[in-house]
Amino acid sequence: MSKIVAVMAGNVYKILVKPGDQVEAGQNVAVLESMKMEITITVGSGGKVKEVIVSEGDFVDEGDPLIELE
Amino acid sequence: MFKKILIANRGEIAARVIRTCKSLGIATVSIYSKVDKEAPHVKMADEAYEVGNPKVTDSYLKIDKILDIARLSKADAIHPGYGLLSENAEFARRCEEAGIVFIGPSADVIARMGSKIEARYSMEQAGVPVVPGISCALADAEEAAQAASRIGYPVMLKASAGGGGIGMLIVYNESEMKQAFEGNQKRASNFFGDGAMYLEKVVENPRHIEIQILADSHGNTVYLWERECSIQRRHQKVVEEAPSTFLDELMRSKMGEAAVRAAQSIGYRNAGTIEFLVDGNKNFYFLEMNTRLQVEHTITEEITGLDLVAEQLRIAAGHSLNFGQSDVTRDGHAIEVRIYAEDPKTFFPSPGVISKFAIPEGDGIRHELAVHDGSMVTPFYDPMIAKLIVKGKDRDEAIDRIQEALADYQVEGIKTNIPMLQEVIAHPAFRSGDTTTSFVAKYFNGEDMT
Questions:
Q1: A36/B382 touch (CB, cutoff 8 Å), yes or no
Q2: Which of B346, B379, B381 sits opposite A9 (nearest CB)?
């Protein structure tokens, strides 16, 4: 089980996965947006999405969990 | 002169414009989004109106709403600042239709300089040097490859509607062209709604040197020397200085005269900037024209003693420039650094609440501020929270001053690029004036440095 966290503070612009999805290492799972800059969040290792913790439009701080993998 | 001016902007530049208006006895109107209610530009203005939700597309870019506020408050002119609507031809036209003076050039001129292909073509016609390349839209990747082999790789593939580094791609050889062309075209279509592409030869190790001009509506145009803005990250300027260490008097006047020619050839009116790339052999090439006030206008003010916002207002009100080229003086050396709310290593944005904001005061130190103690830096806007400007009798004194000022600059609660700025200023290559646009990539090995 692992958590994917925000690498910067900002708004959650897009969530690209839903619970139950199988993701592979390097896959894009979310996009954060802050101050005219978009950062794509990728997963370091594969797994099944257990929970999507945030919603599109939410504000997150650096280090906040976004998605939990089983 | 105008009686009341609406400032269609936010942050430090809105505050900067209000200051000059106050000194000239002009009343001011600010607009603000829901999250900017406590911002300095709101407090400073005589009147302030909410313009919408936080996102710029719901607030500072809402032309209809802004014009409604201008009518309601009986403003007779609108200052657009920089960014946002400042280079939006439709906004300039709508102001004109509403009988409100847009403080800037005509809508036609904005549109012409906003199209990079058309700007390039106009400059060629005016005899202003442009980078070897082509001045019409490329039909497809094949035509791009033919043009590139004619002028020689590497080439810079550019979107005509591009800006701020978006839609620019270096292509090193023919095998890369097809993918580069299609990818860049798609990106440009998405970002700007215009996929027109052209290409230019890559200028190796260039400096970015720009000329400030002023042009009135009576045909008088002057240049106010240069600014060197080579220190950039992600094509955004970080450190600017005037004068440039690289120009001698002959080249300075050649570039100044080329900039005046460029402005006159398009019937320009307003303060404006002609950006040039300068190669190691001191060849200079037109890059683009900014038809507005620039972030770094402050360093030109420091060395010339002029107030560029006041000049903009006089020009927009139809007055003639009250000085000529031979009256423009130059004194000392000025440096500006942009304070960004961002991680100094990754350059990722760092919004949040500023728990402490304490800034140095002293001889030759000037501040332009978008924040104060307790400000919330939101994720909705540009990360620049302040500008620090110093002036010295010469470059060495200016560098010493900015080093001291940066050491005393305290921002807590968010991350800023101050450590990175300190490293740049302290670098021997900066002290010796060896500044090209690859400076950051060459000396700082963080991520995403281009």
A1: yes
A2: B379
Range of the domain at A59: 2-69
Residue B378 C-alpha, separation from nearest chain A C-alpha, in angstroms: 8
CA B244 – CA B386 distance, rounded (Å): 23
* Count of domains forming chain A: 1
H or E stretch covering A8: none
What residues of A are in contact with residue B343 (Cβ under 8 Å)? 8
The number of domains in chain B is 3
Cα separation, A25 vs B51, whole angstroms: 44
Domain's final residue, options B201, B216, B233: B201
Q: For residue B260, give the amino acid letter.
A: V
The interface predicted TM-score (ipTM) is 0.70
In a domain, B184, yes or no: yes
| Residue B384, phi then psi, degrees to nearest 5 | -75, 120
pLDDT in tens, A15-53: 999 999 999 999 999 999 888 788 889 998 899 999 999
The b-or-e profile of B42-81 (16+ CB within 10 A means b, else e) is bebbebbbebbebebeebbbbbebbbebbeebebbbbbbb
Q: Are residues B313 and B247 in the same domain?
A: yes
Helices B395-407 and B418-426: crossing angle in degrees, nearest 10, is: 150
CATH of the domain at A11: 2.40.50.100
Full residue range of the structural domain in which residue B14 is found: 4-103
What is the per-residue pLDDT across B412-444, written as a single tens digit (0 to 9) for each?
Answer: 999 999 999 999 999 999 999 999 999 998 888
